[in-house]
Amino acid sequence: xxxxxxxxxxxxxARNSEGSFIRQPDGGILFAYSSxxxxxxxxxxxxxxxxxxxxxxxxxxxxxxxxxxxSFFGVQNIMSVSxxxxxxxxLALYFLIKENWGGITFGRALSEDGYTFTPERVQINGPxxxxxxxxxxFIRLQDGRIAVPAAMHAYYPNxxxxxxxxxxxxxxxxxxxxFDITPARLTIPALNKSGRGMQEPGLYQHRDGTLRLxxxxxxxxxxxxxxxxxxxxxxxxxxxxxxxxxSPLEMAEHDGVLYAVYNPAPSYNGHHREPGTMxxxxxxxxxxxxxGLTWSDPMNIEEDPKRGYCYPAMFFTSDGAMLCAYCRxxxxxxxxxxxxxxxxxxxxxxxxxxxxx
Length: 357
What we know:
The chain is globular and about 50 Å long. 0% of the residues lie in helices and 46% in strands. The model has no long low-confidence stretch (mean pLDDT 94). The chain contains no helices and 25 strands. By secondary structure, the protein is an all-beta fold. It has strands spanning 2-7, 16-23, 29-36, 47-54, 65-68, 77-85, 91-98, 104-111, 118-125, 130-132, 139-140, 146-155, 161-172, 178-181, 199-205, 211-216, 221-227, 238-243, 250-254, 257-262, 283-288, 299-302, 310-316, 321-327, 341-347. The chain has a domain at 244-357. Strands 6, 7, 8, 9, 10, 11, 12, 13 and 14 form a 9-stranded mixed beta sheet that branches. It starts with a strand and ends in a 10-residue tail after the last strand.
């Protein structure tokens, strides 16, 4: 396991975060991510989509270059990239558009070669809202449709949005140009004044077609639910086996093995985390050999108590390894864990070796 890329902040680039990988037609690996402009790292500050490339399976990376500018959409901020192949073979980078009127919509940029991208807006056929979609969340279902799990926050005319969220799934029948919201609405009760419902959901389709949706909460666990009718209905959300602070979890499958990367139990009973980590340490990985029915014990990826780790994205290389990119900021270099972005290369045979395949 080794750190192959680590992006520091500067006075003109206060945050780098939330990215996604895709293989270019020329064999290179493209990693696209949110790159903030200026000295403000807050979510709504100025941000473009930037990319780096590797031609040696993630061992070394090119210098960052802007792929999509927020100014194309007349806004200051586009962020949270999900890379996906279109049905016609084009590469697509999907992202959030922080609209000037206060809500969030979707955009994408299409490319035939992975170098030149054409940006365009994506239509959400639903109410105006503050739609939160994490990086690396757009997925292709077995029936060919694109599915997106989103946290829908109530939007008010004064430009404010509610911190309490409802998890929904959006589906596209036309390869990502338009998205419709399915009928299901998923949440959990506000447990106290900080209760936030089901935030930043993720989605995975099991081999039998069942959809598994999970979301971060303030209840000490990732909550999850399952759908057997392609997101028309879901079972009542329940705590999963993944204990967690209010921080996202990511799942990805490769060669029949399902991997999960997340932060385990939050601070409690005297456990202490440094300011700025948001309780998001350590970062661990687990694997499942039976499509998510059972899981290995967690293995640490990073565990510095002065750093926070979050918003992971995974990519599997041709030389038997995983690239895992995630935020990894910490004191004294950064104010908050969201500011710094790094990438670890992990050999697959090193991941939870006690779980025999």
